[in-house]
Amino acid sequence: MTEAAAQGQTLRQLGPTVYLPSAVYSTGIGAVAPVIVLTATGLGASPAAAAVVAGLLGLGQISGSLPAGMLISRAGERRTMLTASAFAVPALLACMFAPSILLLGAAVALLGVCGSAWSLSRHAYLTEAVRPELRARAMSTLGGVGRIGTFTGPFLGAAAMHAAGLDGAYLVAIAGVGLATAVLIFLPPVPHDRAVPPGAERPTLRQVLRANQRTLRTLGLAVLLVGALRASRQTILPLWGVALDLSPATIGLIYGVSGGIDMLLFYPAGKLMDRYGRRAAAVPAMALLGIAHALLPLAGGVTGLTAVALLMGVGNGLSAGLVMTLGADASPSAGRAEFLGAWRLCSDVGQGGGPLLIGAITAAASLATAAVTVGGSGLLAAYLLHRWIKPMRGTADPAPPSHPVR
C-alpha cells in the first residue's frame, strides 16, 4: 500500500479515478433499468413474467458476488472491472436483439454479474482508501454517483427512445459502459489497486465466512431486506405505470425524477451517518421506503405515481452508501475482499428476491397486494436495523462482533 493510501485519501482525491468511471457506468445502466420490464412485455410477457425477467438482474448480481470477491483478491480491482465491461457490452446487445424472453433473461442476468463486479471493486478499494471518520461520506458518495446515473440515465434513455424506440435506451447504455472502460484505461490506476501477492498468506473463502458468520446472520439479514426494498422500487414503479397505461417515455421520466431525489440526498446521508451514527439514516430510510410501497395502490394517475416515486426517492436517497458503509465497518483486514463479496451477497439476494416476490404475489393475487407486502418488509427492515446497528461510539457504529480469521 502506498503512503497516501495508508494515511487515507480525501473525497476530492478519489473523484477522477474512483467516482468518475463509476458515475459513467451507472449512467449507462440507469438508462435501461426501467426499460427491461418494457422490453419483456414487448416480447409478450405478462406483468408477472416481466417482473421475473427484471429480477434476473439481481440473480446475476447474486451469482457474481462471491466470485468477484475472489477475483479482486487475485487480479486486482481494475482488471476485475475491465473484465466486467468486456462482458457487459455483449449482454446489452443481446437485450436489444433478443428474439425471446428466455434470451432476454439470460442477457439481463449476465448484466447483473458485470454490475456486481464493478460495485464490489469500488467498495473494496474505498474500504481501505479512506479515513474512518470519512467512511460513510465516501461510501454514500459512491452510492450517490449511482444515483446520478439513475437520475440522468432514464432521461437520456427517454430522449433516445423518442428517436429509436426501446433500442435507444440500450444504445445509451452501451455508450456509457464503453466510455467508463475508456476512463479506466487512460486514467492512472488508483493507489494499492492490486491483487494480494501470490506468496502472501490468504484465508480461504470458507474461513472468512466461518469467522464472520454471526455478522452475516444478524446484520446481513437486515441488509438482505434493504436490497429487496431497493430492487422492488425499480420494478414496481414501471409495472404500475404500465398498469395505468402510461407511455414508456412518461414512465422513464417519473423514474428519473425519483432518481433526482436520490442524487440530492446522497452526501447529506453520508454526513448524517458519520456524525450521528449509521442508525440515524438507516431506520428512517427503510421506514419511508416501506410506507411509499404501501401507498402505491392509491396512485391512480401520473400525479399519484409521481408523488409515490418522490417518497421512494427520499427513502432511497437517505440509504445511499448504507450497505457499503456497514460492510466496511464489519470487514476484517484479512480476507476483506472475500468478506465484502459475502456481504454484498446478502444485499444481492434481497435485490434478486424483491422483483421475484413482486412477480409471485402479482401472479397469485395482484400488483397492489405485492406493493403492500413489500411495504411491510420495509418496516421490518427498519426494526432489524435499529436492533442490530449499535448506537454510535466515536466515529462509527460497530457491527455485531466477528471473530478474527485464524
What does this structure look like?
By secondary structure, this protein is mainly alpha-helical. The protein has helices at residues 3-7, 11-32, 36-42, 47-75, 77-97, 101-129, 135-164, 167-186, 205-211, 213-243, 248-276, 279-295, 302-318, 322-330, 336-364, 367-388. It has one domain (3-194, 203-388): Up-down Bundle (Growth Hormone, Chain: A), CATH 1.20.1250. The longest helix has 31 residues, at 213-243. Mean pLDDT is 84; it is low at 1-7 and 394-406. Its main location: membrane. It is found in: Cell membrane.
Largest sheet geometry: none
Which H/E pattern describes the elements?
HHHHHHHHHHHHHHHH
Number of strands: 0
The overall pLDDT average reads: 84
Q: Which architecture per CATH?
A: Up-down Bundle
Strand residue percentage: under 5%
Helical stretch count? 16
- Kindly state the percentage of residues in helix: over 70%
CATH topology: Growth Hormone, Chain: A
Supply the number of structural domains.
Answer: 1
Radius of gyration: 20 Å
Which parts are unreliable, with pLDDT below 50 for 5 consecutive residues or more? 1-7, 394-406
Q: What is the CATH superfamily label?
A: MFS general substrate transporter like domains
By secondary-structure content and strand pairing, the structural class works out as mainly alpha
Oligomeric category? single chain
Principal-axes shape call:
globular
Calculate the terminal CA-CA distance, rounded to whole Å.
23 Å
CATH class category label: Mainly Alpha
Domain Major facilitator superfamily (MFS) profile: 14-393
Subcellular location: Cell membrane
GO molecular function, one term: transmembrane transporter activity
Keywords: Cell membrane, Membrane, Transmembrane, Transmembrane helix, Transport
